[in-house]
Amino acid sequence: MIRAPIAGLASGVTTIAPETARYLVKVRRLRAGDAFVAFDPVTRMEADAVLADERTARIAELRAAAVVAERDLVLVYALAKGDKVDGVVRDATELGATRVLVARSERSIVKADAERAEAKRARWERVAEQAARQCGRADPPAIEGVLDWPAALTRAATCDARFCLDPHAPDALGPLLAPSVASGASIAFAIGPEGGLTREEIDVAGAAGFVAVSLGRFVLRTETVAAALLGAVRVLTH
Length: 238
Description:
Elements: E1 3-5, E2 12-15, H1 18-27, E3 35-39, E4 45-51, E5 56-59, E6 63-64, E7 73-78, H2 84-94, E8 99-104, H3 114-135, E9 142-148, H4 149-156, E10 161-165, H5 173-182, E11 187-191, H6 199-207, E12 211-213, H7 222-237
Parallel strand pairs: 1-3, 7-8, 7-11, 8-9, 10-11, 10-12
Antiparallel strand pairs: 2-5, 3-4, 4-5, 4-6
Protein backbone atom coordinates (compact mmCIF):
# COMPACT_ATOMS: atom_id res chain seq x y z
CA MET A 1 0.00 0.00 0.00
CA ILE A 2 1.24 3.48 -0.88
CA ARG A 3 2.14 5.54 2.20
CA ALA A 4 2.38 9.32 2.58
CA PRO A 5 3.19 11.64 5.51
CA ILE A 6 0.57 14.18 6.59
CA ALA A 7 1.42 16.50 9.48
CA GLY A 8 -1.37 17.08 12.00
CA LEU A 9 -3.23 14.01 10.79
CA ALA A 10 -6.91 14.00 11.79
CA SER A 11 -10.06 12.25 10.60
CA GLY A 12 -12.07 14.04 7.93
CA VAL A 13 -11.09 16.02 4.86
CA THR A 14 -7.57 17.44 5.00
CA THR A 15 -5.32 19.47 2.73
CA ILE A 16 -2.20 17.68 1.55
CA ALA A 17 1.17 19.46 1.58
CA PRO A 18 2.38 20.30 -1.94
CA GLU A 19 5.38 17.95 -1.82
CA THR A 20 3.23 15.04 -0.64
CA ALA A 21 0.57 15.85 -3.23
CA ARG A 22 3.19 15.78 -5.98
CA TYR A 23 4.40 12.40 -4.76
CA LEU A 24 0.90 10.91 -4.73
CA VAL A 25 -0.32 12.40 -8.01
CA LYS A 26 2.78 12.78 -10.18
CA VAL A 27 5.04 9.98 -8.91
CA ARG A 28 2.58 7.30 -7.81
CA ARG A 29 -0.12 8.33 -10.32
CA LEU A 30 -3.01 8.25 -7.84
CA ARG A 31 -6.34 9.66 -8.96
CA ALA A 32 -9.45 10.77 -7.09
CA GLY A 33 -10.91 7.78 -5.26
CA ASP A 34 -7.61 5.90 -4.95
CA ALA A 35 -6.60 4.67 -1.50
CA PHE A 36 -3.35 5.13 0.42
CA VAL A 37 -2.15 5.08 4.04
CA ALA A 38 -1.52 8.45 5.68
CA PHE A 39 0.83 8.70 8.66
CA ASP A 40 1.82 11.50 11.03
CA PRO A 41 5.60 11.53 11.65
CA VAL A 42 5.13 13.35 14.98
CA THR A 43 2.21 11.59 16.67
CA ARG A 44 2.99 8.11 15.25
CA MET A 45 -0.62 7.72 14.17
CA GLU A 46 -1.81 6.47 10.80
CA ALA A 47 -5.09 6.00 8.94
CA ASP A 48 -6.57 4.69 5.74
CA ALA A 49 -7.08 7.56 3.32
CA VAL A 50 -8.69 8.24 -0.04
CA LEU A 51 -7.51 10.92 -2.43
CA ALA A 52 -10.37 13.39 -2.95
CA ASP A 53 -8.59 15.53 -5.52
CA GLU A 54 -5.04 16.68 -6.24
CA ARG A 55 -4.86 18.72 -3.03
CA THR A 56 -7.13 17.02 -0.48
CA ALA A 57 -7.79 13.60 1.01
CA ARG A 58 -10.46 11.98 3.15
CA ILE A 59 -8.92 10.50 6.29
CA ALA A 60 -10.60 7.59 8.10
CA GLU A 61 -10.34 6.78 11.81
CA LEU A 62 -6.85 7.13 13.23
CA ARG A 63 -4.95 4.22 14.77
CA ALA A 64 -1.57 3.75 16.37
CA ALA A 65 1.03 3.06 13.71
CA ALA A 66 1.99 -0.59 13.50
CA VAL A 67 5.62 -0.02 12.50
CA VAL A 68 7.79 2.23 14.69
CA ALA A 69 11.32 1.99 16.09
CA GLU A 70 11.80 -0.61 18.81
CA ARG A 71 14.28 1.33 20.95
CA ASP A 72 15.97 4.72 21.25
CA LEU A 73 18.84 4.39 18.77
CA VAL A 74 20.95 7.50 18.24
CA LEU A 75 23.62 8.22 15.64
CA VAL A 76 26.12 11.05 16.16
CA TYR A 77 27.57 11.54 12.69
CA ALA A 78 30.38 13.97 11.89
CA LEU A 79 29.56 16.20 8.93
CA ALA A 80 30.87 14.60 5.74
CA LYS A 81 31.33 15.96 2.23
CA GLY A 82 28.99 15.65 -0.75
CA ASP A 83 25.68 13.90 -0.27
CA LYS A 84 27.01 11.36 2.22
CA VAL A 85 24.81 12.65 5.03
CA ASP A 86 21.74 12.19 2.82
CA GLY A 87 22.62 8.53 2.36
CA VAL A 88 23.37 8.04 6.04
CA VAL A 89 20.04 9.59 7.05
CA ARG A 90 18.26 7.34 4.55
CA ASP A 91 19.98 4.21 5.86
CA ALA A 92 19.49 5.27 9.49
CA THR A 93 15.76 5.62 8.89
CA GLU A 94 15.48 2.20 7.29
CA LEU A 95 17.54 0.60 10.08
CA GLY A 96 15.55 2.01 13.00
CA ALA A 97 17.46 5.06 14.26
CA THR A 98 15.35 7.46 16.31
CA ARG A 99 17.72 10.44 16.19
CA VAL A 100 20.53 11.53 13.89
CA LEU A 101 22.78 14.24 15.34
CA VAL A 102 25.00 15.77 12.67
CA ALA A 103 28.08 17.36 14.19
CA ARG A 104 31.06 19.47 13.19
CA SER A 105 34.43 17.92 13.88
CA GLU A 106 37.97 19.17 13.39
CA ARG A 107 38.50 17.09 10.27
CA SER A 108 35.10 17.74 8.69
CA ILE A 109 35.85 19.02 5.20
CA VAL A 110 32.46 20.73 4.83
CA LYS A 111 31.86 23.93 6.78
CA ALA A 112 28.34 25.31 7.21
CA ASP A 113 27.23 28.64 8.64
CA ALA A 114 23.95 28.88 10.56
CA GLU A 115 21.80 29.59 7.49
CA ARG A 116 23.31 26.82 5.40
CA ALA A 117 23.20 24.42 8.35
CA GLU A 118 19.45 24.96 8.76
CA ALA A 119 18.87 24.43 5.05
CA LYS A 120 20.83 21.19 5.23
CA ARG A 121 18.87 20.03 8.28
CA ALA A 122 15.57 20.71 6.51
CA ARG A 123 16.74 18.67 3.52
CA TRP A 124 17.82 15.79 5.77
CA GLU A 125 14.38 15.83 7.40
CA ARG A 126 12.80 15.43 3.97
CA VAL A 127 15.16 12.55 3.20
CA ALA A 128 14.14 10.87 6.48
CA GLU A 129 10.43 11.30 5.71
CA GLN A 130 10.87 9.86 2.23
CA ALA A 131 12.79 6.88 3.61
CA ALA A 132 10.15 6.29 6.29
CA ARG A 133 7.45 6.40 3.63
CA GLN A 134 9.33 3.80 1.60
CA CYS A 135 10.20 1.39 4.42
CA GLY A 136 6.85 1.53 6.22
CA ARG A 137 7.87 3.43 9.36
CA ALA A 138 5.55 6.03 10.82
CA ASP A 139 8.27 7.68 12.92
CA PRO A 140 11.20 9.02 10.89
CA PRO A 141 14.19 9.90 13.07
CA ALA A 142 14.55 13.39 14.47
CA ILE A 143 17.35 15.24 12.69
CA GLU A 144 19.45 17.68 14.72
CA GLY A 145 22.37 19.76 13.58
CA VAL A 146 24.70 20.97 12.55
CA LEU A 147 25.98 20.82 16.17
CA ASP A 148 29.38 21.22 17.76
CA TRP A 149 30.94 17.84 18.56
CA PRO A 150 30.66 18.18 22.38
CA ALA A 151 27.05 19.39 22.14
CA ALA A 152 26.05 16.43 19.98
CA LEU A 153 27.63 14.00 22.44
CA THR A 154 25.80 15.65 25.32
CA ARG A 155 22.45 15.26 23.55
CA ALA A 156 23.15 11.56 23.09
CA ALA A 157 24.26 11.05 26.69
CA THR A 158 20.76 9.98 27.76
CA CYS A 159 21.31 6.61 26.07
CA ASP A 160 22.13 3.65 28.28
CA ALA A 161 24.98 2.36 26.11
CA ARG A 162 27.28 4.70 24.16
CA PHE A 163 30.03 3.74 21.73
CA CYS A 164 32.55 5.88 19.85
CA LEU A 165 34.28 4.35 16.84
CA ASP A 166 38.06 4.46 17.08
CA PRO A 167 40.16 2.26 14.75
CA HIS A 168 42.90 2.14 17.39
CA ALA A 169 40.65 1.09 20.27
CA PRO A 170 41.67 -2.19 21.94
CA ASP A 171 38.08 -3.34 22.40
CA ALA A 172 35.94 -4.75 19.59
CA LEU A 173 32.34 -3.59 19.37
CA GLY A 174 30.67 -7.00 19.05
CA PRO A 175 31.13 -8.40 22.58
CA LEU A 176 30.03 -5.10 24.12
CA LEU A 177 27.09 -4.43 21.82
CA ALA A 178 25.36 -7.81 22.06
CA PRO A 179 24.48 -7.57 25.80
CA SER A 180 23.18 -4.02 25.37
CA VAL A 181 20.89 -5.07 22.53
CA ALA A 182 19.68 -8.13 24.42
CA SER A 183 18.77 -6.05 27.46
CA GLY A 184 16.70 -3.60 25.40
CA ALA A 185 19.00 -0.70 26.28
CA SER A 186 18.95 2.56 24.37
CA ILE A 187 22.11 2.87 22.28
CA ALA A 188 24.16 5.71 20.80
CA PHE A 189 26.98 5.53 18.27
CA ALA A 190 29.46 8.33 17.50
CA ILE A 191 31.27 8.29 14.14
CA GLY A 192 33.97 10.58 12.82
CA PRO A 193 34.34 12.15 9.34
CA GLU A 194 36.72 11.33 6.52
CA GLY A 195 40.12 11.14 8.19
CA GLY A 196 38.59 10.12 11.51
CA LEU A 197 38.27 11.84 14.85
CA THR A 198 41.19 13.52 16.56
CA ARG A 199 42.51 12.09 19.82
CA GLU A 200 41.04 15.08 21.62
CA GLU A 201 37.57 14.41 20.15
CA ILE A 202 37.75 10.76 21.18
CA ASP A 203 38.71 11.89 24.69
CA VAL A 204 35.73 14.27 24.75
CA ALA A 205 33.50 11.35 23.80
CA GLY A 206 35.02 9.28 26.58
CA ALA A 207 34.26 12.03 29.08
CA ALA A 208 30.63 11.91 27.88
CA GLY A 209 30.43 8.19 28.65
CA PHE A 210 31.19 6.83 25.18
CA VAL A 211 33.29 3.65 25.11
CA ALA A 212 35.92 3.60 22.36
CA VAL A 213 35.49 0.51 20.15
CA SER A 214 36.69 -0.72 16.78
CA LEU A 215 35.20 -2.68 13.89
CA GLY A 216 38.40 -4.51 13.04
CA ARG A 217 41.39 -3.75 10.84
CA PHE A 218 39.65 -2.79 7.59
CA VAL A 219 39.46 0.91 6.75
CA LEU A 220 35.78 1.72 6.18
CA ARG A 221 34.03 4.74 4.71
CA THR A 222 32.11 6.79 7.26
CA GLU A 223 28.78 5.96 5.62
CA THR A 224 29.67 2.25 5.64
CA VAL A 225 30.40 2.42 9.37
CA ALA A 226 27.00 3.98 10.07
CA ALA A 227 25.14 1.28 8.15
CA ALA A 228 27.22 -1.49 9.75
CA LEU A 229 26.54 -0.28 13.29
CA LEU A 230 22.82 0.24 12.89
CA GLY A 231 22.53 -2.97 10.91
CA ALA A 232 24.25 -4.88 13.71
CA VAL A 233 21.64 -3.66 16.19
CA ARG A 234 18.86 -4.72 13.86
CA VAL A 235 20.35 -8.17 13.29
CA LEU A 236 20.87 -8.74 17.02
CA THR A 237 17.32 -7.53 17.74
CA HIS A 238 15.65 -9.77 15.17
